[in-house]
Amino acid sequence: AVGFSGNSGRDWQNNRKGLFSxxxxxxxxxxxxxxxxxxxxxxxxxxxxxxxxLKTLPMELFPPVFKxxxxxxxTNILRAMVxxxxxxxxxxxxxxxxxxxxxxKAVLDGLDMLINQKDRPRSCKLEVxxxxxxxHNFWKVWAGTEDGVCSPNVVSESQPVVRHPIRQGKQVVTxxxxxxxxxxxxxxxxxxxxxxxxxxxxxxQVICEKLEFGVFPVYKPLNxxxxxxxxxxxxxxxxxxWDLRTLSMFAPGLGQMRNLQKLLVxxxxxxxxxxxxxxxxxxxSREIISQFSHLTKLQHLYLNGIFFLNERLDxxxxxxxxxxxxxxxxxxxxSESDMRxxxxxxxxxxxxxxxxxxxxxxxxxxxxxxxxxxxxxxTLQTLKLKGCMLMNFQIDDxxxxxxxxxxxxxxxxxxxxxxxSSLKKLLQHTANLRKLTLEMYPAPTEVYNDTGDVMPDRxxxxxxxxxxxxxxxxxxxxxxxxxxxCSYCRGFCxxxxx
Length: 498
What we know:
The longest helix has 16 residues, at 101-116. The chain has helices at 9-16, 32-44, 47-53, 62-71, 75-83, 101-116, 136-142, 152-157, 188-198, 221-224, 244-255, 278-290, 313-317, 336-344, 367-374, 392-402, 420-428, 456-471, and strands spanning 2-5, 23-26, 89-91, 128-130, 166-167, 170-171, 173-176, 179-181, 204-207, 210-213, 235-238, 242-243, 262-266, 268-269, 300-304, 326-330, 353-355, 382-384, 410-412, 438-442, 479-485, 492-494. Helix 15 (367-374) links the parallel strand 17 (353-355) and strand 18 (382-384). The chain contains 18 helices and 22 strands. Helix 2 (32-44) packs across helix 4 (62-71), helix 6 (101-116) runs parallel beside helix 9 and helix 11 runs parallel beside helix 12 (278-290). This is PRAME family member 12-like. Keywords: Leucine-rich repeat, Repeat.
């Protein structure tokens, strides 16, 4: 808009003709979304009026009004809006970036109001309360911060489809949540949520698809599963170092996760007071291993530092209904029978990712690792054999199968005891591996002196030779030769990447 100032009627007449005179000034042009936001803020200043207006508030205004009330922590309005929500799903996780107990209480109170209604209004369609960090587009579109018009049908298509079982004659409301627990005790919000759900299990189902323990808990982790549908958990990660006692107490819950697709367990140790109690250690180990008979849907399995796998690997893998995509068994001791089973196991025939780093092959039959690779030549993309104590006499059995793994993108042979001649043979057998983008190899044993320290001149000389050998068969993209810790630089001697 453009305005002007002038005193005479003649000025006004001139301006009507397009002959503007006087001094000009600019005024702000408000977009429709800005005007809508101002109107919403004005409405929410009167709490009672806002709650009363919900009965006639158009569907398209519910999300922007809810978002403004959320930003202003107007808990009474949030409570009423949850009970009157016009959409099938309320994606709270996209808004709640931090744990806010008061807002959580308001949302759950609103859900209580909805559940307790005898005659639910037709306009109220809420079936799923989603605390996962997702559904960002819902708020962007409906709050007017994203260009374009979005119909209710378009939004509903992007929201999760959840089947709702009937319990005791009541329609169950579903709460979706993913948990990443990074403190030793449960936070106040999660404690409140846990207790709230326990008291309403007949009218609620809580679905947690991803559960992660980032630290060793002081609470009993099995108790946490009381409020979830264990069969709905698809990913479980125990990233912290747990003791054998805690994991065995959690094991019955693991066995209930019948649709688990991804499992990561990282480092299990024996409590100090258990070291001399073999019977207790054995019982706990059996209790944990036995749960794998229920985990038939696994696709990705990471077992790192699990000491009781020895002589039991077949009990872990034999119940799988379809081949694994990922298998990582690292820093574990595997027996001859374990490796023999693994080399012919149908569940590993389509692996794309194989990591056996830290598994010592020094005392195992030479051909077993080669036979394992033979079974995955058509699919394997990542191979990690870091620190496996591979020796020169073992590498020949590995090379024929390795040369056929045409889909390989990444290999890691670091911290194995290989000479220059063995490494040259290894590199020459990668001629057909045209998809390799990252390669990591050990510095040859010739770079070390009698005390085990790296001699930098030899390191440069031999690694340059190896690089030229590789360039004779194909052009590498990114390649490293890594030594043991060096007394000169106190770090790792690594060749420049190509």
